[in-house]
Specification:
Blueprint: E1 7-9, H1 11-14, E2 20-24, E3 28-33, E4 45-47, E5 50-57, E6 59-64, E7 67-72, E8 75-79, E9 85-90, E10 94-100, H2 102-106, H3 112-124, E11 127-129, H4 132-151, H5 157-182, H6 190-205, H7 212-218, H8 223-234, H9 238-256, H10 261-267, H11 273-284, H12 288-292
Parallel strand pairs: 1-4
Antiparallel strand pairs: 2-3, 3-10, 5-8, 5-10, 6-7, 6-9, 8-11
């Protein structure tokens, strides 16, 4: 089989592919003009960021994780680092797009019990059709965020942008849940069903259970097979999902509660504060204290 090279594109790289943009540090890119993306058409890429794109004009065909999609006016695309994307033929497409760094996304004040299931769903469903009302609402969020980045000139610009994007993410969650309930869903294969069951268990037990064996036993699978199933469906193994969920919960507690680090370690069922601190540093590169004081 012929090897296919996949180009990894960072948020900073994305700035080279758009004709006009507004940026906030290295965390946010916001644009309404992605004409220059034609230069990477028919090339498989992976974007190392979280992309929200509302199509406002035009049509383009794209392949995402080996599935073909047609994007046109009134559609929403959400692209994750797990997606391998290839833009194919189509006419000039205009979008309102926000590109967020992974670290910025982790720092948002959002309920991970709501957002992680949405994130998990988007891996296999990156496209949804917006109602006119939802399209208008999301475009208003986009314009507010753009104006904040472009015109606000104070030390709290990042905090204001974070709060606006957090609100937008909650709106996106509502849109996805509504569309999921209203649309006839294609029948899921066995692996996708195991993935959904694993994510439901992880949402319920992540504060007390971090061993793959616990989840595998609940699903009557071997740990090795469970990890291979999750890897094929989502791009992450069972242990990677467990660590990802645990760190998101820890970050949320550190930033948005008054709990001490010792109390957070207890809430997440670590044997002591020292063990929790080592775990957090291993996965983030910094101590819980340093993160809390950022």
């Amino acid at each position: 089989m012929e090897n296919i090279n996949i180009n990894i594109i960072s948020l900073d790289d994305m700035k080279l592919y758009v004709d006009s943009n507004d940026t906030l540090f290295s965390d946010i890119l916001i644009t309404e003009d992605m004409v220059s993306l034609s230069s990477i058409r028919n090339i498989p890429i992976r974007i190392d960021a979280f992309v929200i794109a509302i199509v406002t004009k035009g049509v383009i065909k794209a392949t995402i994780n080996m599935k073909d999609y047609l994007f046109k006016e009134g559609m929403l695309a959400i692209l994750l680092p797990e997606h391998i994307i290839q833009l194919n033929q189509g006419n000039e497409m205009h979008v309102k797009a926000i590109v967020l760094s992974n670290s910025f996304l982790d720092d948002l004040r959002i309920d991970i019990h709501t957002m992680v299931p949405m994130y998990s769903h988007i891996i296999n469903h990156p496209q949804t059709t917006l109602s006119p009302e939802d399209s208008t609402s999301l475009c208003k969020y986009f314009d507010l965020i753009k104006d904040t980045i472009r015109f606000e000139n104070n030390r709290r610009k990042k905090e204001i942008s974070q709060n606006l994007i957090s609100a937008m993410m909650h709106k996106l969650s509502i849109v996805y849940r509504t569309n999921l309930n209203n649309d006839a869903q294609p029948k899921k294969d066995r692996k996708e069903m195991f993935y959904d069951k694993f994510m439901a268990l992880l949402t319920q037990h992540h504060k007390t259970e971090r061993k793959v064996e616990f989840y595998a036993d609940k699903l009557c699978l071997t740990p090795k097979y469970l990890s291979s199933v999750l890897k094929s469906v989502s791009g992450k193994s069972a242990s990677e999902w467990i660590d990802h969920y645990t760190i998101l919960e820890a970050k949320s507690m550190l930033k948005f509660t008054q709990m001490t680090i010792k109390e957070i370690a207890f809430q997440l069922s670590f044997p002591n504060q020292s063990f929790f601190s080592k775990y957090f540093r291993k996965h983030t590169g910094m101590s819980p204290k340093a993160y809390k004081e950022m």
